[in-house]
Amino acid sequence: MISPGLDSSVYSDLCSAADLERPVERRPCKSPACGPQWEVAEWTECPAKCGRRAQVTRDVRCSYETRPCDPTAKPPNAKNCTGPPCERQWTMSEWGPCSGLCGQGKTMRHVYCKAPEGRVVPENQCSAEDKPLAIHPCGERDCAPHWLSQDWERCNTTCGRGVKRRLILCVGISAGKFQSFDEEACGGSERPEEENTCFERPCFKWYTTPWSECTKTCGVGVRMRDVKCYQGRELVRGCDPLTKPVAKQTCTLQPCPTEPPDEGCQDRPSTNCLLALKVNLCSHWYYSKACCHSCRALRPPTS
């Protein structure tokens, strides 16, 4: 060190000539366990209706197909969940214009599930039994019973092949008013399908391994885990980067203990401690050790 905050590199033989001990360049460290590890995907969305309880699941897989993972360390693949608060309500837009004669004529409106603050939320957070009609028959004053199909609901899966459903009603108009009938009243015509298969995007899923141990035993350290994208058993790159789980995070442990001053410490003869005191180097870690006797005089007395 030339002056505080100014260091200069020199050839290593100068340090050897001064009998300075060379710090080690390598040391053993504890890394995450090698071999098979459990990998977990994200939890599914809670299917519970408002105020109800249900279960969410996640995929849990072993990173090796040929070598089994430790069954006692397997993470859980299911847990309980609670549905959203019940103050969510259906809201509707105004009815649109009629598209034609009764039987073919329909009027439509938008139906949303909204939270109390006005935010639109997924429809499964409102009661399906109370959902208002989004499509309504219209046309002539009187209309014989006929089948009325509502819009398809969202596919029941976020990826891969699933099922979608829609509400089918037997309805008509009598004396200018909408009326529901038993399905037998519409038996003369073929009932539309109320269920169909659907396919969303391919099932790319993020999987994570367990967190490693913290890099520190006290203070603030870092822990890490592997994050991989799979499609089935194949490692791919198709996962949404916006939903990628974090692979590194800090871990805060108990504060590190502070060493009490060594009352019997001595200055190193090879170090110019008078100069270190003169240029105020006692705050530097090296000089606080090498000149501990001289620097001790600068420390405030402990109570």
From TrEMBL:
<dbReference type="GO" id="GO:0005576">
    <property type="term" value="C:extracellular region"/>
</dbReference>
<dbReference type="Pfam" id="PF19030">
    <property type="entry name" value="TSP1_ADAMTS"/>
</dbReference>
<keyword id="KW-0677">Repeat</keyword>
<keyword id="KW-0732">Signal</keyword>
<dbReference type="InterPro" id="IPR050439">
    <property type="entry name" value="ADAMTS_ADAMTS-like"/>
</dbReference>
<dbReference type="InterPro" id="IPR010909">
    <property type="entry name" value="PLAC"/>
</dbReference>
<dbReference type="InterPro" id="IPR036383">
    <property type="entry name" value="TSP1_rpt_sf"/>
</dbReference>
<dbReference type="GO" id="GO:0031012">
    <property type="term" value="C:extracellular matrix"/>
</dbReference>
<dbReference type="Pfam" id="PF08686">
    <property type="entry name" value="PLAC"/>
</dbReference>
<dbReference type="InterPro" id="IPR000884">
    <property type="entry name" value="TSP1_rpt"/>
</dbReference>
<protein>
    <submittedName>
        <fullName>ADAMTS-like protein 2</fullName>
    </submittedName>
</protein>
<feature type="domain" description="PLAC">
    <location>
        <begin position="261"/>
        <end position="299"/>
    </location>
</feature>
<keyword id="KW-0964">Secreted</keyword>
